[in-house]
Amino acid sequence: MPQGRVLLINNSGFGAYGRFPEPNLGEQLEMADVNMRAVLHLTGLLLPELKRRGGAIMNIASTAAFQPTPYLATYGATKAFLLHWSVALGEELRGSGVQVLAVCPGPTATGFSQRAGLKPGQLAEGPRMTSEDVVMASYRALAAGKSIVIPGAKNRFLAGLAALTPKPLAARIAGRVIAGSRLPPEQR
Ligand SMILES: NC(=O)c1ccc[n+]([C@@H]2O[C@H](COP(=O)([O-])OP(=O)(O)OC[C@H]3O[C@@H](n4cnc5c(N)ncnc54)[C@H](OP(=O)(O)O)[C@@H]3O)[C@@H](O)[C@H]2O)c1
């Protein structure tokens, strides 16, 4: 029987720019399946093994979790779900030997933006973080026993501000930023 601690990383996920249900309802439902349902499914299947051997679950949410995100409405809501669910699950598992970390990256240089129909790096001024930066911050947070990590000082500041802003106002601001970040259709 396999031994040793288990690390489950629920990383798969995607977004798609548009007014709901653009680009189409099938893609919206697939997003809910990949970003949420698959996480519940995999975690549910592996939890007995995690409890037996000890270990950790890292769920890759997003700074999109901290405010409503017009034009990425479903995406942001799936990440808000993941953030809250992860922290609640971590609390349920306190003392069980299984730790849960919600990772909330801001704009990061991967294939995500192109797939989502967004201009790279437009959702926050300045250079995007690298995946390596995000991974290192996540492992450090896991070692420190944290339940949430927002890699990058600017991302932490903006997410903190968004969380404190009344939701309708935060949605208004986020909608303007996201609308200005749309990748022209000919570049998709
Ligand atoms: N990059 C960012 O700016 C950013 C910011 C915040 C959060 N995130 C989150 O970070 C995670 C990783 O994304 P990434 O930035 O590395 O983007 P990425 O380069 O586009 O990678 C997306 C990952 O999700 C998988 N995936 C996408 N659609 C899928 C589907 N329909 N079924 C199964 N798997 C699917 C992909 O698998 P294949 O390679 O097999 O297609 C790939 O492993 C996602 O959860 C994303 O929401 C990204």
Question: Describe it for me?
Answer:
There is one protein chain. The chain has one domain (6-181): Rossmann fold, CATH 3.40.50. It is 49% helix and 10% strand. The chain contains 6 helices and 4 strands. The chain has a 4-stranded parallel sheet. α1 (25-53) runs parallel beside α2. It is globular. The mean pLDDT is 96. Bound molecules: NADP nicotinamide-adenine-dinucleotide phosphate. The site of NADP nicotinamide-adenine-dinucleotide phosphate has 15 residues, from α1 and α3.
Helix and strand topology:
Blueprint: E1 6-10, H1 25-53, E2 55-60, H2 73-92, E3 98-103, H3 112-116, H4 131-143, E4 148-149, H5 153-164, H6 167-179
Parallel strand pairs: 1-2, 2-3, 3-4
Helix pairs in contact: 1-2
- Quote the CATH topology: Rossmann fold
Report the radius of gyration as a whole number of Å.
17 Å
Hetero groups bound?
Answer: NADP nicotinamide-adenine-dinucleotide phosphate
Helices and strands, in N-to-C order?
A: EHEHEHHEHH
- The CATH H-level homologous superfamily: NAD(P)-binding Rossmann-like Domain
Biggest sheet descriptor: 4 strands, parallel
CATH architecture: 3-Layer(aba) Sandwich
Helix fraction bin: 40-55%
**Beta-strand fraction estimate:** 5-15%
| The CATH top-level class label | Alpha Beta
Mean pLDDT: 96
- For the record, give the distance between the C-alpha atoms at the N and C termini, rounded to a whole number: 47 Å
Low confidence ranges: none
Q: Report the count of strand segments.
A: 4
Domains counted in the coordinates: how many?
A: 1
Physical arrangement of strands within the biggest beta sheet: 1-2-3-4
What class, by secondary structure content?
alpha/beta
